[in-house]
Amino acid sequence: MNRRPEGDELPPVVSRSDWLAARAALLDKEKALTRAADALAALFLRRESWDAMREAGRAHVERRHDWSVNARRYLDVYQTLLARKDEGPKCAAA
Q1: Running DSSP on this structure, what letter comes out for residue 11?
Q2: Domain boundaries, the chain
Q3: What is the pLDDT of residues 59-88, one digit of tens each?
Q4: What is the DSSP letter of 49?
Q5: Mean local confidence (pLDDT), 29-39
Q6: Whole-number Å distance between alpha carbons of 76 and 51
Q7: If DSSP states are collapsed to H, E and C, what string results for 62-77?
Q8: In angstroms, rounded to a whole number, what is the distance separating the alpha carbons of residues 52 and 86?
Q9: Which residues lie closer than 8 Å to 12 by C-beta, 6 or more apart?
Q10: Percent of the chain surpassing pLDDT 90
């Protein structure tokens, strides 16, 4: 006689609509996982371009995230804001 081990219970019996909803949710998760795996595989296929992408990223950071360049570019804005702070609040109705 075939006996199940203790603690190995059958899944609960559910309605067809509940089963279909759970199946659709599981298929959505499976599709998302498949897309992620495909994207990862495509990334690995483009390994030869990684060095070029890394260099482009470093060049972008050096060009756009340089504090001294940004400070010079926005110096007029900073001075205007500081001048307004020193003058105090202005009344718009005056």
Answers
A1: P
A2: 15-45, 49-85
A3: 988 888 777 777 777 888 878 888 876 666
A4: G
A5: 97
A6: 38
A7: HHHCCHHHHHHHCHHH
A8: 48
A9: none
A10: 43
Report long-range pairs for 63-66 (Cβ below 8 Å, ≥24 apart): none
Q: How is residue 67 written in tokens?
A: 């504090």
**Alpha helices of 13-94 — where are they, by DSSP H?**
16-45, 50-64, 67-73, 75-87
Compute the C-alpha angle 65/69/70, nearest 5°: 65
- Residue labelled with tokens 């110096």: 75
- State both tokens at 12: 């609960």
- pLDDT in the model for residue 62: 83
Of the pLDDT bands very low, low, confident and very high (cuts 50, 70, 90), residue 20 is very high
Q: Which residue has the tokens 């909803």?
A: 21
